[in-house]
Design brief:
The protein is mainly α. The protein folds into two domains: about 1-30, no CATH class; about 35-90, no CATH class. It has four helices and two strands, in the order αααββα. Strands 1-2 form a two-stranded antiparallel ribbon.
C-alpha cells in the first residue's frame, strides 16, 4: 500500500499530521508516551547496568561490550535479555 493510499484513510490512533510526518521523515515523535516516573526508574536501572559493566573485560552472557571498553570508559553495546535483568524493562 502506498503512503498516499494509507493517508487517504481516516486516522484511527495517530493524528493526520503524525502520519504525514512518518511518511516524510520515517519516524514520529509521541510526546509523553512514557510516564515521567517510569523514565526516572529506567534511568536508575540503566545507570546501575552501566556501572556493573565496568567490572567486565569481555562480552559475556549479560553484556555485549564494544571496542575500547574499560572500567574508566565503559562501552556497553547491549544488555542481553534486559527483561531477565530487571522487571522495569518488562
Amino acid at each position: 500500500m502506498t503512503p498516499e493510499k494509507v493517508l487517504s484513510y481516516s486516522p484511527q490512533v495517530l493524528t493526520q499530521a503524525q502520519r504525514e510526518d512518518y511518511f516524510e521523515n520515517g519516524y514520529i515523535k509521541v510526546e509523553n508516551l512514557i510516564p515521567e516516573e517510569t523514565l526516572i526508574e529506567l534511568q536508575g536501572v540503566i545507570a546501575k547496568v552501566l556501572d556493573e559493566s565496568r567490572k567486565e573485560t569481555k562480552s559475556g552472557s549479560i553484556f555485549d561490550l564494544g571496542p575500547g571498553h574499560s572500567s574508566e570508559i565503559p562501552v556497553l553495546r547491549r544488555l542481553k535479555k534486559p527483561d531477565d535483568y530487571d522487571e522495569v524493562f518488562w
